[in-house]
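Checklist before submission:
- one chain only
- standard amino acids only
- sequence pasted in full

Submission:
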Amino acid sequence: MADYYELLGVPRDADANHIKKAYRKLAMEHHPDRNNGSPEAEERFKELSEAYETLKDPERRSLYDRFGKEGMKGAGGAGPFQGFDLHDAIEIFMRDFGGGGFEEIFGGARRTQRGPRIRKGETVRIRLPLTLEDVVNGGTKRIRVALLESCQSCSGTGSKEGAAPAPCEQCEGTGEERIAQRSVLGQFVSVTTCRACGGEGQRLVNPCSDCLGEGRRREEVEVDVEVPTGVTSENFITLRGKGNAGPRGGPRGDIMVMLEVEEDPEFIRDGNHLITDVVITFAHAALGGEVEVPCVGGRVPLEIPAGTQSGQGIRIRGKGIPDLNGRGRGDLIARVRVWTPTRLGHEEAALLRKLREVESSPPERVEEGEGGRRGFWSRVKEAFTS
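Returned file contents:
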């Protein structure tokens, strides 16, 4: 599929009105009703509608401009349309341009039979809690959700024993009512949804007793959600065609999975970096040595340099969170905390008294680069720029 801007023939800085006009012109040219159902025209019509639906939305357009069509897949679940079909394309066209029916848009003079209106199922929104380990490792999460599924008793038709629905007598199966009004300027014809059938163009003769003619019933089902690494609570994942079944055989809606990343007691998250505390003794801070610090999924060794100050951050590369768009991995920052004992043994007290007699006096102020008074975030920033 070509670049969305090239498909619509608009520059990359085109405004919303320019994009809408370009889409309307090309969509009318390639609409299946104008091309006798040509497969090539249908495919082009779907591509144009997908491009228009992306570029008309500021958020989706921004993601497309930054990451491209494929790169959008990992950007908050707002990737290219999956399972995008002709019904979706026609729905988009009718939503923005089709209030009076195709025959009026295309300049036809007669009223056409559109046939029964097919309604798409609703989009279902669910929340998915994630741990920090889920964010680092990604993977498949299986969740249970209550959805409207096709009624097994009537195979989703809404009619008992498979009885065929009858055309609506009010609108003659078109799903529309036309009301003519006269004024000093002439006659105006307005098109509205048929009040008798709700725009469906048909009525049930013998409704199914299990689903009451709806063609669907609520059931609990299991759904698999592929969680990419590096997500945040601001991201969501859209499962196209996995939502509620449409009434009486209509296509399924979507499931929008809202991600909720739980706080971890051992780590603070800063973008793709993780911060954890490591507690050491004064002797360890002064003399240096190796300790183990926690990381997601285990522990890693860390070398403490001699003379480390309390609050100083030491970076361990590549032990943070993988980037959502596959651009490397963040770091783990070990924030050193020097522990002061509250109770001393006889030998410890004697050694510390001896140390106090021979140790150097501390400076009156801590200079840049020595830790102490400077905030932890300042030292972390310095670590990343060094």
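Reviewer check: The radius of gyration is 32 Å.
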